[in-house]
Inverse folding.
């Protein structure tokens, strides 16, 4: 048994002991007072007591009729030792049971915390709580939820580190190959320098996206301000038209009334732009990317970005927002799978949500919901 058990046990038992002793002493004192208050109680009955002995206090009926005291023994006798011993034993068992009831789940939580501190995040407390429905059981559920989230977070970080290492390895390998070829073929040094510069730009882009993802995941979203969403979308649509012009991809932008949201303007711009650029990348040459702003009657604004690509299977609609995810039908090779991951974390930091769905006759439809500033 732990120290907490013995503390509970001693405190509960002392409280019960004080109650039993206090109750017994109270009854004993009352009986003594009753004996001293009524003369002749406890003595042998003598007919015809002197009248002055009962001048202030009339004699009990038993004495008037010449009967013996109740229960056959005078009140005010010795302490009831046997009942007090039985009460003490009962209080001892009760205190032990209560102490065990409170100390057991706390001991389980302590062992679980020790296991989690040693790296075992598979430990769970709720199965050992039985049918408890109290604050300690709620604490066990909170612990299980905390360890599950920590486990998911650590596994995500490990996957992210693995994916980053894999993504960095490819441009580094091409850089090393270009340097080696430049040494072997000095006459083509300019071509190899262009290759080295291009791979350096790719690495710089990857590192920039990783830094943005890390900053958003850490909650560093910058200062929030009122952002005119219609103006922001118009700027993004203009940049998207310029980017898609090389492949004759049209941007069908349907602006809505001017409205403001509370967000970091740069981060929100980056998030929406990532979704639009992802739609451009997965659209066929000569296709159309639809960008629409609407205001349903729910206190939020909806931004819909739809492409005409091959779409995403139903089982991958949630996974596309994970870092470095590449779908089965992915053909867009210029990105690193971080755009949608950054977009989700940035939109969530602004109090909104982002999700994807499939629509008949369209590729992938991404919907962004943001709370209106005036709502």
């Amino acid at each position: 048994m732990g120290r907490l058990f013995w503390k509970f046990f001693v405190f509960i038992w002392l409280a019960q002991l004080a109650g039993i002793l206090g109750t017994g002493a109270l009854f004993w004192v009352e009986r003594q007072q009753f004996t001293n208050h009524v003369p002749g109680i406890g003595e042998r009955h003598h007919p015809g007591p002197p009248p002055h002995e009962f001048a202030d206090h009339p004699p009990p009926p038993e004495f008037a009729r010449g009967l013996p005291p109740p229960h056959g023994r005078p009140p005010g006798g010795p302490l009831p030792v046997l009942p007090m011993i039985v009460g003490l034993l009962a209080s001892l068992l009760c205190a032990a049971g209560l102490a065990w009831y409170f100390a057991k789940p706390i001991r389980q939580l302590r062992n679980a915390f020790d296991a989690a501190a040693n790296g075992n995040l598979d430990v769970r407390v709720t199965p050992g709580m039985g049918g408890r429905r109290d604050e300690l059981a709620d604490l066990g559920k909170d612990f299980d939820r905390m360890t599950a989230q920590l486990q998911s977070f650590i596994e995500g970080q490990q996957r992210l580190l693995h994916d980053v290492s894999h993504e960095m390895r490819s441009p580094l390998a091409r850089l090393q190959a270009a340097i080696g070829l430049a040494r072997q073929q000095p006459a083509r040094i300019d071509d190899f320098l262009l290759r080295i510069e291009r791979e350096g730009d790719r690495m710089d882009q990857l590192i920039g996206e990783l830094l943005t993802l890390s900053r958003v995941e850490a909650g560093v979203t910058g200062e929030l301000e009122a952002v005119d969403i219609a103006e922001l979308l118009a700027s993004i649509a203009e940049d998207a038209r310029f980017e898609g012009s090389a492949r004759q991809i049209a941007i069908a932008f349907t602006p809505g009334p001017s409205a403001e949201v509370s967000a970091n303007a740069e981060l929100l711009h980056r998030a929406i732009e990532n979704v639009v650029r992802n739609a451009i990348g997965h659209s066929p040459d000569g296709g159309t990317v639809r960008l629409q702003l609407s205001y349903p009657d729910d206190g939020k604004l909806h931004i819909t970005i739809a492409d005409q690509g091959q779409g995403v299977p139903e089982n991958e609609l949630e996974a596309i927002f994970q870092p470095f995810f590449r779908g089965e039908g992915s053909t867009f090779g210029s990105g690193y799978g971080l755009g949608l991951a950054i977009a989700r974390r940035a939109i969530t930091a602004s109090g909104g949500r982002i999700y994807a769905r499939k629509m008949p006759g369209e590729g992938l439809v991404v919907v962004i919901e943001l709370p209106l500033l005036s709502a």
About this structure: The mean pLDDT is 77. The CA atoms of residues 252 and 290 lie 5 Å apart. Strands lie at 225-228, 250-254, 260-263, 288-294, 300-306, 353-358, 364-371. The first strand starts at residue 225 and ends at 228.
